Protein 1
Amino acid sequence: MSQASDYLNEGVRPREVWSWACYDFANSGYTTVVVTAIFNAYFVAVVAGNATWATFVWTAALSVSYAAIVVTAPLLGAWADAHAAKKRVLAVTTVGCIAGTAALYFAGPGNFAIAITALVISNFFFGTGENVIAAFLPELAKGSALGKVSGWGWAFGYVGGLLSLGVCFAYVVFAQGQGQTAEQYVPVTMLITAAIFALASLPTFLILKERALPQRQASGAYAQTFARFRETVRQASRYRDLARFLVCILLYQAGVQTVISIAAIYAQQAMGFGTQQTLLMLLVVNVTASIGAFAFGQFQDRIGHVRSVAFTLACWLLTTLVAWRADGPGLFWVAANLAGLCMGASQSAGRALVGYLSPEARRAEFFGLWGVSVKLSSIFGPLTYGAVSWVSGGDHRMAMLATGAFFVAGLLILAGVDPERGRRAAEAG
């Protein structure tokens, strides 16, 4: 049986890894309930009244928040590295996301200003916090075990998403039994999600250590931040495999983020699922996603990070084709669970490879660039889906087929990534 010393850096205790994974557990409820399962479909059906442009407006609002992350993530990462302040930044983003999620309680029919503002704020802080917590991974795990430990985090995260969605599902069933409408019970699920996020994130702040040391200051805090970022851009050629993989992430994550943001919308608009049926499906998908992240993390370090990512992208392509061909619940359930397995595995593998290719002194900064790639993909991926759906008069099947092209492009770019060459460049600094 493996000992902790086999996969953790010197001085790192297993309870720290658990506390780090608790953040994935905590924040997954936001993605699952707000972006994927409940509020997205609620926005289209109730807030926007099933207007033909509703899906496009939903994706556009998410895009605004992702654009803000793109602008700020590299600079925040550089600042966090320079000041050894990742936990401080994480605390601010956590409070911001929880407050924004709770504010969605006030989004009712026609309340576009409240719904969009709260969505943009909550998703901005969620995405920023996601980048920061990822930057702790290389401090905890050895290079040879980044995939394994990353898989643990993602797996535990999907358990958290499952818990949040399960509690919300139970409340929805209860509320519907009381004769309540979506206008009444969906806002309450936003408060439930915010509360679970707040409670589940506490171990992270109480146990996880900030191991980085403050680095030598430039003339001022902001001057140093901009100087470090300019230096990263100037030296980008030294990390060509990391740069190429970031482009790969930009492409394939456009597909992943599209699936995440429109899952419930597709289920209800294209498949005719009701609220309970949609939530039940997504509950099961969270189970398969957790299994996928954990199981894949056990062997991805052995087969190689690039091969791991390639395998998951091929599976993602298959998923979109199955969903496109589905004309009833049976085949769509197959596609949904394939998506769950792919989601857990691809997110874990991608995060691990970024850590493997990143120089030690700039981990938060490079994970900030990882966040930039993911968030850029989160802009044009869902927007592409929304635009195709709008232009085609609400043809969600055509929009799903277009999504598959992102995984093909990601595979083509991935073919040029040499992980060992990239690792040597990272170790050289």
Protein 2
Amino acid sequence: MVSLWMLAVGFGLMLLMLIIGFHIASALFLTAAFAAWWFFGDTMFRPFGTLMWGTLNNFLLVAIPLYVLMGEILVRGKITERMYVALDDWLRPLPGGLLHTNIAASAIFASISGSSVATAATIGTVAFPAFRGKKYSEPWVLGTVASGATLGILIPPSINLIIYGALTNTSIGQLFLAGVVPGVILALLFMGTIIVASTLNAAISASSDPVPWAVRRRRLRDLLPPLAIFLLVMGGIYGGWATPTEAAGLGVCGALILVAANRELGWHMLYECLLTTVRVTAMTLLILIAAFYLNFIVGVLGVPAQISSAMSQLDIPPWQMIVVLAIFYVMLGCFMDSLAMMIATIPIVFPVVTALGFDPLWFGIFLVVMCEIALITPPVGMNLYVVQAVRGHGSVADVVVGVLPFLGCIFLLVAIMTVFPEMITWLPKTQY
């Protein structure tokens, strides 16, 4: 059985590889391969092919490319652009005006894309032209886009929750339901922050001309397509007539029908959608193969049992463990991609939290929220650089300044989740 100090060395080597620029899959696989060779010679290399086939031969993972494809179709079919304009018409009377539109559009698009990075790129592309020529504080514009996009991995369907469920054998349907309430609360916290800040400092936002009621009512129909897709996907899952994977397929079909109805469907558009989907899926599945192999080696070495035994001997309350884990993930998120952070730590941390009595559903949402923080914390916060790339000028420091108030909202959500864990578990338990 491997000692804890050797485990720390292995984890440190993996972090070092990630920090110096190794691909996530390469770092995970090399760590697992080195541990397998060090303790077992070449014996543990032989099951890799079978393990890889077993990992990919999982009906659940088919949902990943389908959700990516669904989001791409809706974006390139201009469904998202029309949704943004409709939300703008209704939300601009609030203190903060267009800033609320960034949050609301991110929340809605999150419910049909499952990806934070995709949400940041899409909403940024649509939002920035809308702010051009208006006297809004640029850091706040950038901050609302980058922070609002973090909802992409929390509000269902979420690719991160699918991966967590696959790695921990937790129900995807229950995880999706568990993400609804904290996702809505976080979006409301973001919007509340904008209202308070705009009230205290009028320079943050600008006044906008009101939109006639007739125009508002007419544009409400542009909110129906994303709502229809959400109801089709989630209704299929919780209505009992579709699995999460089958519901993703229904979502793709629904998206194609909507885009065709808008006369935006074409061969070139489909080609671009499929090409992006293949790229994202290939990257994700490669990481998953390496992660499952690392899980296998870690399990064979008896690491989960050893860590659980060591943690059970510590006389600390569970809430203190949550504080320790939160600090650990915040520090880790400063140097690692959110997906890498989640996949690399689950084999070690998940046995610990379950041994302490935490619900796997609760921990899944907690971990995703920690990943949200990683997405908007420098130096490697992906959303920061995606938003800056879409912006195309200035410094990424403006984006960092803009997300700071919203980081406070995410930490507040973590505190609420810890004090009231039922807010996550009650909805899944009513359905299952």
